[in-house]
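Dear colleagues,

As part of the handover before I leave the project, I'm documenting each prediction I ran so the next person doesn't have to rerun anything. This entry is a single chain, and its sequence is reproduced below.
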Amino acid sequence: MNVRRRHIPAVALTAVAALGFGTLTACSSDAAAGDTGKFDVVASFYPMAFLAERIGGEHVHVTSLTQPGQEPHDLEISARQTAQLEESDAALYLKGLQPSVDEAIGQSPIATKIDAAELTALEEHGTEAGHGEEHGDEHAHEDEHGHDHDHEGGDPHIWLDPVKYAEVAEGVGKAFQKADPDHAADYRKNTATLVKDLKALDGKFRTGLANRDTDVFVTTHAAFGYLAERYGLTEEAISGLDPDTEPSGARVKELQQIAEEDGVTTVFYETLVSDKTAKTLAGDTGLRTDVLDPVEGITDHSRGEDYFQVMEANLTALRTALGAR
């Protein structure tokens, strides 16, 4: 897989992280932890850092283990990052997404470990999100096309469903209140504001996708199973839950058939991985390509400066692809 990696100085990382958050502390993978005079939180990657920043506000210092532009699935924890963990007050991560993070946090003596996967119900999503039932057994492939994955316990992409992300936010807020009781009132207030914003985003998706020509959308990897299920859509992914998975020729042929049968107009790719496979499939089937961002990180190529802006850009892209009115 072609992953675009960017080596950015700490000052630049801090500036990138500060965009769109309101009153924030530094969110840099190069920032020192443990000596800031604040509640020091190590977050595994952007969706977790975003929660920590929004809920913690001025009382937290957030260190993100995954740099802007780095594909989170590929992250390998460095010795320096392991040391940062040991110096921090809390770790916020999503077990099942980044094995090296899971291992490092599991072995760390850090007092407060917050696993977002325990704060909402995880579900199983494969390369297809429910399409097998509609098209019969010939579309219900699992193992033969590499749809199996290593995400034990279910699909980890919970932040792409605003309702589930709100459930996680509530759990993170409670964990912050318990770990740093001196600022519990602010954490409670900030959590309530964030949950309200996420519910408003859910409302925009429900309204925006209510009237559409097709339910089916095609993506490069199966990150959008929760979003599809929440809004009655069907995700057909070229690869599985892990973007490293290469599709078989049979899977590509199958997708061409599905696109024709279901009026699919667009093949979506994402900002942090190569668009080669999506463009090849689109070229073979006469479809358009567009970005559907899994919001795993914010870069200068993102269609927005924070989670909410990128998710609204995703809604716009989906509305166009699905013929929503």
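The chain has a mean pLDDT of 82. Strands lie at 39-43, 60-64, 90-93, 112-115, 216-219, 234-237, 266-269, 288-291.

All the best with the project,
I.
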